[in-house]
Amino acid sequence: MADIGISQVPITQESVRFNQPMASSSTSAIAGVCNALLRIFLPVGSIVQSILTEADFQAELGNPSPETWVLADGRNVAGSTYTVVTGNSTIPDLRGVFLRGKNNGRSDGNQNPDGDLPLGTLTSFKTAAHTHQYFATQQPLINDGNIRTESRIDGAIPYNTTAFTSTTGANESAPKNTTLNTFIRIN
User: Fold this and answer.
1) What element of type H or E holds 50?
2) Is residue 79 part of a domain?
3) Coil, strand or helix: which one is 138?
4) Residues 6+ away with beta carbon under 8 Å from 68
5) Which class for 81: exposed (0-12), middle (13-18), buried (19 or more C-beta within 10 A)?
6) Per-residue model confidence as pLDDT tens digits over 10-42
7) Residue 147 belongs to what domain range?
């Protein structure tokens, strides 16, 4: 990237007062600059998360036509710039899922165990294979005043054997989280 020297020529811009009528040339110029900045900082395919509903999000954008951002809900967006750029007419469905970065060749042990998946791939819920075990302790059974030499817990597990806990927990494994809507830029 080349360094850009400091210019001795001052930058001038026609002043714009708010709440006053603006010439259409001024609004077109501002819109052009905004669109250019969006293409640089948030190109098609970018995602943002918001606490707004899709209707509120669109209203904040001024309900542009064609839509520039939509809820990433797996819908068909044929005819959009997203389709032209990615070759996919369906956007990813990001509702109710956690986002994970693509491996892009990472091989230091922190990569996705499923491999370097294509962008937008949804993986199903899973828990890494594991067990929880404990060891039975000696608790002699007393029956009719006689201590037996075989030890059991509740009369079922012999002494010095491995036992497993019963199932406990919620219906998913997840860190603390906050629910947001995820939007994707399509135009």
Assistant:
1) strand 47-50
2) no
3) coil
4) 38, 61, 185, 186, 187
5) middle
6) 555 565 556 667 777 777 778 778 777 877 889
7) 135-164
